[in-house]
Amino acid sequence: MAERLTPGVYVEEVGGNVRPIQGVGTSTAAFIGEAARGIPDRAEFVSGFRDFERRFGGHRRGEAGFLTAAVEAFFAAGGRRAFVVRVLPTDATPGASAEVPARAADVWGVNRPSLRFDARGNGAWSDHLRLHVEPSTSFTDRAYRLRIEWTEGGRSRTVETFDNLRTDPESEDYGPRVIEENSQYLRATDLFQRDLDAAERTAPPLPEQVPALVSREPTVEAGHPIPVGARLTFSWRDGSSGQGTDVANPPAVTFSEAAVEDAGGTVAAGRGTLTPAQLRAVLGDALGEEFRVTRPDDGDPGDDIVRIEPAVASDAYLAVRLPDDDTEFDVSGLTAVRITAADAEGENPEAVEVDLPDNTTALSPAALAELIAAAMADDNPYGLAVDAAGPFVVITAPAAADGVGLAIAAVGGNAPWPEPDVIAGDPGVLVDSLRGVEITVSETIQPGVARALSGLFGSVRSAGLVENDPGDPILRPALTEDTPLRLVGGVAAVREVGVAQYAGGVTDAGRTGLHAFDTVEVNLLVMPGRNSPDLLSAAMAYCDAEDVFLLADGVGSVDTDFEISADEVRQLVEGLPGRSDNAAMYYPWITVPDPVSAGRNPRRLVPPSGHVAGVFARTDSTRGVWKAPAGVEAIVSGAVDLQHRLVDADQDLLNPIGLNCIRQFPGAGIVTWGSRTLSSDPQWRYVPVRRTALFLKESLRRGLQWAVFEPNDVDLWDRIRINISAFMLGLFRQRAFQGATPEEAFAVKCDRETNPQEQVDAGIVTAQVAFAPLKPAEFVVIQISQKSLLVV
């Protein structure tokens, strides 16, 4: 309750007892079948036939065109909302990209695979995808962007974009996870993580790295233009130990006129110009021993950059590689291999002698690594470790305050390996993990002095990398530039789609078949032309579980010479293995214009369920779900003929078994002339009665969500009764029920009688709702008799 201290008038909002219940939609159709393209086993919303064509393709001949014809008929007849699921045979295969290499070769010269993309679903539809790996928008030095295009008919459009993706699984922007959770088209596999988890390593480890700020390349030929007086402050911090620069007085660099000229640079019009070497000199003098200011080795394409890193110790690495095309080291004539470790200055050397077995002429990398490990088990003052990875033998020395240098030599003959690759361990402060070390640079804003930071450094912060760190920037997928990635190998297959593909299920890979509709709201289910007993049983079971109404197709064929008697149709329907309150079947198939065949006025036969779904949607919109979608108003739009023209004697056999006939009448055209369900329960005999009940169930379920967890007492019962009564009264005024008064039309009860104490104790509240449904006037009887004229 609000606190009131000062006398006055207080106006407060108080919730009323009436929470309006809104009627749910009743004519959102769910179509499932075969299409020319599209992502299989995913419910796609379509708002019109053009939308369907864009996603799933156009008309096709024969049974392959049933789905397209049904969707077109639905929208042509008045439907407005539909979800479509494409199914494929079991022998369909998904498209996949080639392995995408990492952004650059690593320090050992190994080109590592980074990612592989797979289509999210089988079929040739993925041939239309083009994948572009592009620079990240916000983090150009650490992340990447993936843009997905759909290309068809010479035109392309971007359908998805994922920006600022990372290669580190611990990041919330980890690329494969973001794509898996959000992309409608792709899955991604992290090939670097896959190789790390492999039983046998094929590539040496990625060395750990001290964090570093790397300058941009000079923007002018003379060097870096820097505003005179600009001031940059550098700091580093180890997050676990707290070691780092003095927070109160971090090292700073001021590019004064004197500092620029003393370094050999030039000053003109308030702006100094420094070559990369001169910039290194200025930074080195100002930052002192807390930082290392370096550059790549001479001859490296990046000689023009300046690298600044904290004076933190790092591991040392030595990698020995097999000669090209060899599978073993030729050690004939050698007696031993000597491993030497020393500090960064080459002092305090310690050697480990690895004796080779007598008469040994060749050793694989794994065998050589095993010998070295055995020798170091007894004498290993620097704590060296050795491992074999494919053609490499890698020796690692842990970080030391004085630094570490490694060397390897063959004893007794020439070395059987090329010049080893060596990464010296830098001397400096010892930390537990380089990943917790961060270096930052900031700029002091001064009046009248232009900013220098953005022109000198592309990033103002950098963190260290541990060994095999997945966040290493080189592991980002290579840019595709003018050659986008394609998903190849996707095949739509040639087998027929079976019951298992239509019925689907819920698996670890996702929801398939009918279960693809689980996450969307649909009211009518259409499986054009699919009317085998086992498939109808699966569809009825799904509709009963999800309160969806099935529109099933009766017996029919695309063959114009197909013939069957009404009695044979009756026997087939009566032989169905199951019945459902939530299903209706329509017969016969209908003839429509054929948009894919040649000739004058081509026609073809299609199942009627899509057309009937359109009749349902139109009737719901104009009259309400309680009106039977049948009669002279229920014109089957687009139909020009019927596969079998029924007469009254035929319908005498079919109507009692719940098979709804499509008839042609003079002056009315082709109309649906039946409105019965396939229910074995007489109270749900009629389609509008059952669909009204489904409408009420879903509307009340959604409209009363507010009541969950409310105090279960008389006040709640009254509020529930008031809300349901208000909703039902609104429907009564729309003439949705029988009865001349609300009391005759419906009844709502929610009181102590429906909620005894034992149910209240169990957390249950029960409201009873009864309604008098409108039933169609299926048989209109006119009684005619002669009237006698009595003359007095």
From TrEMBL:
> What residues does the Tail sheath protein C-terminal domain cover?
679-785
Gene3D superfamilies, alphabetically?
3.40.50.11780
- Quote any Pfam family the record assigns: Phage_sheath_1
Which residues constitute the signal peptide according to the record? none
InterPro entries assigned: Phage_sheath_subtilisin, Tail_sheath_C, Tail_sheath_structural
Report the residue ranges that make up the Tail sheath protein subtilisin-like domain in this protein.
513-678
Q: Which family does it belong to?
A: Belongs to the myoviridae tail sheath protein family.
Question: Protein name, please?
Answer: Phage tail sheath protein
